[in-house]
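User: Hey, quick favor. My workstation is busy. Could you predict this chain's structure for me?
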Amino acid sequence: MVAATLVRSDVEAGLNLVHALDKKGFGVIAALWLYNSDTETWRMVIGYEGARKDLERKYLEAATISAEWRKQHPDEPILDLSSVRITSADDSLLVGLKPVVRVDGIGEIRFSRNMVNGIYVEDSLIHRLAA
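Assistant: No problem, here it is.
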């Protein structure tokens, strides 16, 4: 991941991760890149349908799916989970974004310099945010 700059290759690797998760029925309801100005890095946020108590299981599931993708598609990059934050549908950022932005399927909407549910979003690139 490149500091302060979201590069297209990272975006594509992130989209491959979303496609792999979708294919295995992971339940992705949100997929977006979020910029953290404190660390000057971008991180992908994946929101899933289900309870927060399942978070650890969902990380393990995502790791398994990612490893399978790497074996089956060696020439197509997939985002490393160290660059991903997986969270449940009740995450305060996702809850705050839902009334403001909706992206079904896969899209690409830039959302910057806004306060959402008490959280300042300096910059983000939203690929999916289902109602």
